[in-house]
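TA notes, week 10

Several of you asked for a full example with nothing omitted. So below is the full record: structure tokens for the whole chain, then the designed sequence directly under it. When grading your own attempts, check the secondary structure regions first.
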């Protein structure tokens, strides 16, 4: 498949001015808010709160058919979203999907595909958790939980939906990563490890899906005030209950921060749905592989540019070169 070449350097790394201030301008916000998503079917994981909850309503208000998925139904968050959809006549179907369970995913995806007529246009892998603290204190229960949610969960969803997308020769997949999927913060537990893994999985997938006309975009948010912070504290408290006293003493300065609510600052989480909408509206084959999102701080831009340059230098002249260049240039 031949794709139109696009210089994505600005999208990938940002201009110097953008890198110093923001990855999402006021003009971009106006563009996203004014776009008509009618005819698009969008499936989102993790819609009980945060980017998933905001996105479900945001896309539906722009005409999309939204499959808002969450685990442990029935639950108050689902009822609240259903009431909003009914009141404002939004096309939102709430489906139970637990990304830790292949059986739950199979049942939920099959229901969504049937309701959508056999094809989902956009998958947004949003569900994720944080468990922080030094690496040594991450026991296998915490390690397996965060990897199963943040890495294996998207992989399960991708495997469930790709067959129909390949058949349609069309589709978009957004994987929600983080600044910490490119840079390292000590005491962040395995959060960076899972997001680094998700970044690698996503980039490899982007190359492999070029012949099928399916676009992959990695969204890299900075800090935003969502419930991931309070939920992180709850996961950390469970980990602390299992932690040996010797480890608590050895890493005392880090351990103290495990129960502090980071909060995410005064940023607006709607930036994420707006960026995703802007990218959905781009022409097929011209969407960026990575999109850093934060109003003031996007330290990963130089890493993204260096990574793209290294990939092209390594594989540009190889049999994979056309696919790699199609994604990165």
């Amino acid at each position: 498949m031949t794709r139109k070449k696009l210089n994505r350097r600005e999208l990938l790394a940002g201009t110097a001015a953008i890198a110093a201030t923001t990855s999402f301008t006021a003009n971009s916000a106006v563009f996203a808010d004014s776009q008509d998503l009618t005819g698009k079917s969008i499936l989102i994981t993790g819609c009980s709160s945060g980017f998933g909850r905001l996105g479900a309503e945001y896309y539906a208000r722009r005409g999309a058919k939204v499959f808002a998925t969450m685990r442990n139904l029935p639950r108050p968050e689902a009822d609240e979203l259903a009431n909003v959809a009914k009141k404002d006549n939004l096309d939102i179907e709430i489906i139970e999907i637990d990304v830790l369970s292949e059986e739950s995913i199979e049942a939920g995806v099959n229901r969504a595909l049937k309701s959508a007529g056999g094809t989902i246009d956009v998958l947004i892998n949003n569900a994720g958790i944080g468990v922080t603290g030094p690496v040594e204190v991450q026991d296998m229960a915490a390690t397996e939980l965060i990897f199963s949610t943040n890495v294996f969960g998207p992989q399960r969803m991708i495997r469930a939906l790709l067959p129909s997308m390949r058949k349609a020769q069309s589709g978009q997949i957004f994987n929600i990563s983080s600044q910490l999927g490119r840079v390292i913060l000590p005491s962040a537990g395995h959060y960076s490890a899972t997001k680094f893994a998700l970044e690698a999985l996503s980039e490899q997938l982007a190359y492999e899906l070029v012949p099928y006309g399916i676009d992959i975009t990695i969204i890299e948010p900075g800090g935003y005030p969502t419930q991931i912070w309070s939920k992180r504290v709850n996961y950390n408290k469970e980990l602390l209950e299992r932690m040996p006293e010797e480890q608590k003493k050895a890493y005392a300065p880090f351990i103290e921060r495990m129960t502090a609510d980071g909060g995410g600052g005064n940023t607006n989480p709607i930036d994420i749905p707006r960026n995703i909408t802007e990218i959905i509206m781009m022409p097929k084959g011209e969407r960026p592989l990575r999109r850093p999102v934060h109003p003031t701080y996007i330290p990963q831009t130089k890493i993204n540019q260096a990574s793209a340059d290294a990939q092209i230098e390594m594989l540009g002249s190889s049999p994979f070169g056309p696919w790699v260049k199609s994604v990165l240039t």
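Residues 95 and 151 are 21 Å apart (CA to CA). Use that as a sanity check on your answer.
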